[in-house]
Design goal:
Bound molecules: NADP nicotinamide-adenine-dinucleotide phosphate, 2-acetamido-2-deoxy-beta-D-glucopyranose
CATH topology: TIM Barrel
Helix content: 25-40%
Oligomer: single chain
Shape: globular
Length: 313
């Protein structure tokens, strides 16, 4: 099996990030036995993936850490530095005093001394005993929370820091008092929710966009425009959807727990879409899959979905 050489993008922190991430997001992961997941991730490293995306809330930090240790032990990679590991601060820890302990717990679970990228998962704070389906919202103080993220960076525990699910307006607020700008904003981005405005805004601010749900949302996999392009190019529909994200200057975080599809998804770097194909993709009707409505309430910080997204819906 040939190992794919994945290109890297340079972040505003000066660090380089591999241009495709392997997602280990929540519900699907919990259905797979841990040892099997470890082996899938080791297989992904053998295939050429170097960037692994996890989060405190996913429950997959341990398996990512175990796979990294196994890849190192088995000589698949020569040093920890060859991998790029992203994790995320969950909303229950989105407070000045809770950020550092949360990252320390993440590092303990990963068995690593640092993460390459640490993200604020949502511009939201929930009480300690909240769950996503029973959220008790608290006030999210972006300035103080970000200052604590910056401290993690200064301590060397996170090489780069960033955000997730932030609108342009919320990024602008964060930047008002930031000393270190966010390196990455991880958001829903796919052919069915192209995020034109946000992509443009982040480009101006030199914040890299990492795209979650590149395939799984918005019926991307049934899209007739992509289907046609895929047939013409002798590529799979998923490859076209992922390549499109890469050509927008963003990088996909894709999740597959299937060996063949893991291989397929990484083979997007030695061909390109034509201008005409890109134009056709731009015409696809737009719709956001994740509205975040579970975080909106009359007595909370965000009273409507419009407020949560600052009208960017
Ligand atoms: N920051 C955030 O708030 C946030 C939110 C959501 C997700 N994420 C991250 O982004 C990652 C990806 O998002 P996601 O899990 O929502 O969705 P996704 O990667 O867009 O789609 C996953 C689905 O697509 C299937 N799939 C993958 N490759 C395929 C291919 N080549 N052909 C056909 N089907 C394929 C997978 O099934 P098989 O496993 O059977 O291949 C799975 O059902 C997550 O794992 C997580 O790390 C972050
Ligand atoms: C930034 O700091 C100033 C001065 O302390 C404060 O007035 C302002 O509200 C802060 N902005 C944010 C978004 O926290
Ligand atoms: C189409 O792609 C497959 C898989 O990459 C390859 O084996 C096959 O030779 C290609 N066919 C043509 C006509 O290029
Ligand atoms: C509204 C929105 O797009 N929010 C997404 C942010 O991230 C979570 C995952 O933690 C998604 O489920 C949401 O849809």
């Amino acid at each position: 099996m040939d190992t794919v050489q994945v290109p890297e993008v340079e972040l505003n922190s000066g660090h380089k990030m591999p241009a495709i991430g392997f997602g280990t997001g929540a519900s699907a992961a919990s259905a797979v036995p841990a040892e099997q997941l470890v082996q899938l991730i080791v297989g992904a490293i053998a295939a050429g993936y170097r960037h692994f995306d996890t989060a405190a809330i996913y429950g997959t930090e341990e398996v990512v850490g175990r796979a990294a240790a196994e890849a190192l032990g088995g000589g698949l990679i020569k040093s920890r530095g060859e991998l790029f590991v992203t994790s995320k601060l969950w909303c229950t820890d989105a407070h000045r005093d809770l950020v550092l302990p949360a990252l320390q717990e993440t590092l303990r679970k990963l068995g690593l001394e640092y993460v390459d990228l640490y993200l604020i998962h949502w511009p939201i704070r929930m009480s300690k005993n909240s769950s996503i389906h029973n959220a008790e919202m608290m006030n999210f103080d972006v300035r103080e929370t970000w200052a604590a993220m910056e401290e993690c960076c200064r301590l060397g525990l996170a090489k780069s820091i960033g955000i997730s699910n932030f609108s342009s307006a919320k990024i602008a607020k964060l930047l008002e008092n930031a000393t270190i700008p966010p390196a990455v904003n991880q958001v829903e981005m796919n052919v069915g929710w192209q995020q034109g405005k946000l992509v443009q805004f982040c480009r101006e601010k030199k914040i890299h966009i990492s795209a979650w749900s590149p395939l799984g949302a918005n019926a991307v996999m049934e899209n007739p425009v992509l289907k046609e392009i895929a047939v013409n190019k002798n590529k799979t529909l998923a490859q076209v959807a992922l390549r499109w994200i890469y050509e927008q200057g963003a990088t996909p975080t894709v999740r597959s727990f299937n060996k063949e599809r893991i291989m397929q998804n990484i083979q997007i770097f030695d061909w390109e879409l034509s201008d005409e194909e890109v134009h056709k993709i731009r015409q696809i009707p737009q719709h956001r899959a994740g509205s975040g409505k579970e975080f909106v309430s009359a007595d909370g910080q965000y009273k409507s979905i419009e407020e949560l997204w600052d009208g960017e819906i």
